[in-house]
Please model this.
Amino acid sequence: MSPFGYTCSKHFDDYPCCHRQWQHSGHCRFVHGYCRSFTFCFAATHLDAHGFVVDFSSLKPLEEKLKNQFDHTFLINSDDPLLPTWKKLHMEGALDLRVMDNVGMESSAKLVWEWANKILLSRDNARTCCWRVEARENNHNSASWEAIPDWFEKGR
Model:
């Protein structure tokens, strides 16, 4: 349940990508793929001139970042011992590499939450924030990151 009066959410889906958790002792250590999706929950101190928390048509920069990071890409942890091999395959055009601190859904949720809030803060001057992101790897598995940015709390 949201701690705010005004909220809305926006869902982005269909980002097929693959990754591996090289330190996992089970099958997750192998390269495998999912079609990721993300649901962003937004809040506002007050509605904009059009009566919106967030005008969904204004989220194109966020959508482009999601597409660039997750659409037909290969995600790998920055400490993966095969990183030189993955970089070589990227240079040879065999995969579209994205190196991340952690490719897991939990860390991905936090990463895209940060992206959303950076965009909102610069655009809306702390009127809006993203307070929750759910990242899904399929219909059965999801992870989320939930936090209220300090700058939004100060503006409430």
Summary: The first strand starts at residue 6 and ends at 19.
